[in-house]
Amino acid sequence: MRGVFLSLLAAMSAAFAPTAWASCDERSEDIVFGRAMALAPPGTPWDDQWQIFKANVSQDPTMCFDYFTRGERRSEEQMFHDIRRGRAHVGGMSFQSVTVVAPEMAMAIAPFVFDSAEEVDFVYDEYLLDVANELMAEKNLVILQWVEVGWMNLYANDPILTPEDLSGRKMRGSPSLSAQLFLEMMNADSIPVGAGDIIPALQTGLVEGGLSSTVFHFFQTRKFASDFTLTRHAYDTGAIVVNKDWFDGLTTSQQQTLKSAWPPSAEARQGVRDLVGMALSVMTQEGVEIHQLTDEQRTVWREASAPIAIAMAERIGPGAQKVIDAINAGKAAFRGEASVRDGS
Predict the structure, then answer these.
(1) What is the pTM (predicted TM-score) of this model?
(2) H/E stretch holding 278
(3) b/e per residue 329-338 (b: at least 16 CB within 10 A)
(4) C-alpha–C-alpha distance, residues 258 and 261, integer Å
(5) CA of 85: how far to CAs of 36, 96, 124, 169, in Å?
(6) pLDDT above 90 as % of the chain
(7) Which of 49, 110, 291, 295 could form a disulfide with 309 if both were Cys (CB 3.0 to 4.6 A apart)?
(8) Which tens digit of pLDDT belongs to each residue from 80-116?
(9) From CA 49, how far away is CA 41, in angstroms rounded?
(10) 8 Å CB contact between 194 and 77
(11) Residue among 147, 32, 153, 13 at smallest CA distance from 70
């Protein structure tokens, strides 16, 4: 397994290689054209999943796609802009960026909302997808499927074990309200940097660290941080997003092609989760200090983060309550199902 994992690293000559997969050399009026965009570095599980998407869509003779999924656009904000206006049609987006378009959904990535990945899966699949699509429809977007990203953690060149350790640090946070308030309330200097600009920001000292999932940090930023702290304070779940007007104009068969092109949720999620342990192991061998928080330390982080969800809801407005209600209902249902499974 480790050999396979390291071979993926060797295949990554650059985190965001300027490579496009042009698939539509000859276009016909009878064929629906689409353009897909994402920030999926070569060699990562997300790039592998786009390969599967491409192979499945190619089986439909009525559809033809060009692919710009390896970070050619560099900015998720720009990709969302392109998809909403029909310049692109399908995109793989982090949930952090989804919440910029639909701010209410940021409540799902408020600190310490979820206790386990299994709880996340249940609530997102059974309770949040319909709510998210009601909000996204207003922005001419549809979410086809959730995509795994993982628990958010902290990286820097010094240990960050307590909220006080963040005070005064220049930290990269995503544009989402959740990430920005998390850093601000820990008295860090929160600097929103686009995903494609993180490495230059670290190289120039614009930022000294940031928030990231384990797998994304490993493939993108691990060379710029000596310490990685597993705060697991929020869960980032990406999404496959399409332009609604374009999607509504497809035939039922073409819509089904897109809905089934990405690997099933359970399979796609596991493909990312399987790499977490290996990524941590390799980073440890490379000399990175991996900091596992004690129960007492996590309690300190949880208590320091408690005001964030309240502040988020106040800034977002009344629409936040609908998402909060869906999350609470989903968490209650998950606990009920867990009790049934446990026989209690």
Answers:
(1) 0.86
(2) helix 265-285
(3) ebbeebeeee
(4) 5
(5) 14, 20, 27, 37
(6) 72
(7) 110
(8) 889 999 999 999 998 878 888 899 999 999 999 999 9
(9) 11
(10) yes
(11) 13
